[in-house]
TrEMBL record:
<dbReference type="GO" id="GO:0003723">
    <property type="term" value="F:RNA binding"/>
</dbReference>
<feature type="binding site">
    <location>
        <position position="279"/>
    </location>
    <ligand>
        <name>S-adenosyl-L-methionine</name>
    </ligand>
</feature>
<dbReference type="InterPro" id="IPR054728">
    <property type="entry name" value="RsmB-like_ferredoxin"/>
</dbReference>
<comment type="similarity">
    <text>Belongs to the class I-like SAM-binding methyltransferase superfamily. RsmB/NOP family.</text>
</comment>
<dbReference type="InterPro" id="IPR029063">
    <property type="entry name" value="SAM-dependent_MTases_sf"/>
</dbReference>
<protein>
    <submittedName>
        <fullName>RsmB/NOP family class I SAM-dependent RNA methyltransferase</fullName>
    </submittedName>
</protein>
<feature type="binding site">
    <location>
        <position position="241"/>
    </location>
    <ligand>
        <name>S-adenosyl-L-methionine</name>
    </ligand>
</feature>
<keyword id="KW-0949">S-adenosyl-L-methionine</keyword>
<keyword id="KW-0489">Methyltransferase</keyword>
<keyword id="KW-0694">RNA-binding</keyword>
<feature type="active site" description="Nucleophile">
    <location>
        <position position="332"/>
    </location>
</feature>
<dbReference type="GO" id="GO:0008173">
    <property type="term" value="F:RNA methyltransferase activity"/>
</dbReference>
<dbReference type="InterPro" id="IPR001678">
    <property type="entry name" value="MeTrfase_RsmB-F_NOP2_dom"/>
</dbReference>
<dbReference type="InterPro" id="IPR023267">
    <property type="entry name" value="RCMT"/>
</dbReference>
<dbReference type="Pfam" id="PF22458">
    <property type="entry name" value="RsmF-B_ferredox"/>
</dbReference>
<feature type="domain" description="SAM-dependent MTase RsmB/NOP-type">
    <location>
        <begin position="130"/>
        <end position="377"/>
    </location>
</feature>
<dbReference type="InterPro" id="IPR049560">
    <property type="entry name" value="MeTrfase_RsmB-F_NOP2_cat"/>
</dbReference>
Amino acid sequence: MTPAARVSAAIEILDRILAGEAPEPALTNWGRAHRFAGSGDRHAIRDHVFDALRRRASWAALGGSLTGRGLMLGWAREAGVLAQVFTDAPHAPGAAVSPPRAPSETEALDCPDWLAPRLRADLGAAFVPTCQALQHRAPVFLRVNLARTTRAAAALHLQEEGIATREALVASALEVTAGARKVQASQAYAQGLVELQDAASQAVVAELGALKGLRVLDLCAGGGGKALAMAALGAEVTAHDAAPRRMADLPLRAARAGARIALTDAPERLAPFDLVLADVPCSGSGSWRRDPMGKWSLTEAKLAATLALQAQILDRAFGMVAPGGVLAYATCSILAAENGVQVDAAMQRHGLVELGRRQFLPGTEGDGLFIARMKRV
Ligand SMILES: C[S@@+](CC[C@H](N)C(=O)[O-])C[C@H]1O[C@@H](n2cnc3c(N)ncnc32)[C@H](O)[C@@H]1O
C-alpha cells in the first residue's frame, strides 16, 4: 500500500471508531476484510489510528471536522504533508479539503473540556507537560525477571535477537529503543527472562519495599503484571480478581517466569495477609497514551462511580490485612480524587498510619501511577 492508501484506510477505521466501534475490533475487522494489507501496512495504519485518537481534539480542529478525514487532515497539516497525501490519486484521500479551525487551549492540549479545570488544580505547573506527554506514544518497557537473570544479561540476550534496550527507571526495567515488535516472538520472552511492563508500574512494586517471604494478596490482580513482579521479588503471592477471566493467562505467565502464584475466588478465607495490594480499577488517566479512547469516554458520572468502587475495595482490602501489616493502594491515575483524597479518607475510616505515597506522572520514564502504603495498627 502507498503511504496515502494507508491514510485512507486509517480514515475508514477512525470513522468506525467515532461511530462507536472499539479500536481493536475496528482494526482487526478492517484487516480481515483487506487481506492484501501486509504486516507493515497494518502496523502503519494502527499507528495512524492511535496517534489520531490521542490527538482527537487538536487534529479535529486543525482538520476542520471530527471525522476520520478531519483527523487525518489535521495530522497532514501539522506534519506538512497535505499536498503529498490528499491528492485524488488512486486509493489516496480526495484533494478537496475543509479549512482548519484554531484549537482552543484545552483542544490544543487534547484535554477533555470538563476535566481540564480539575486536572489543572490537581497538577499545577505539571498540567501542561502532562497533557503534552499524553499526546504521544508511550515508550515500550520490559521488566527483567531478576529471579532468573540480571538486567545486563537480559539486555545482551535481547540484543542478539535484534532488540535494542537501555536501562530505565528502576533496577528491573529496560526501555526498548529498537525492535519492540520482535519482543513477544523472542527467546528471551519465551524463556521468561523478560515481561512487557511499564517502568512506573515496576517502580510501584519497588515502592512496596522488601517482599521476600511475605504473604501477599493481590486483590485486583487483572492480568497479573504486579503479582508477577512481586513474586519475582520473593513474595508468596495470592491473586484475586472480581473478574476471574482477567487472570486467565496468569498461570501460563507464572510458569514461564518460574514463579508460583495461587489464584483464589475467596481471599477472605485465606486472610490475614502481611500485605494486601489494592491495585484498583481507575480512570486510567495515567495510561491514556496506551488507551486514548479512555480519555474521551470518561465522564463525571463514570468517575463518581469509580471513586465509590475504589473506597469499597479499600475497605474490603483493609479487612484482610493482619494487625501490623500493610495495606497498599495503587492506581494508574493522575487525578487527586482517586489518589491522595481516597487514601486520606481510608486512613481516617480505619485509623491507618501512613508509611509513604508517591505519584508518578506520564512521561519518558513511564506511565502515570500512584502508590500509597498504610500500616494497620
Ligand atoms: C488496574 S486493574 C489491575 C491491574 C493489575 N494489577 C496489573 O498490574 O496488571 C484493576 C482490576 O480490578 C478488578 N476489579 C474490579 N472491581 C473489583 C473488585 N470489587 N474486587 C476485586 N477486583 C476488582 C478488575 O477486573 C481489574 O482487573
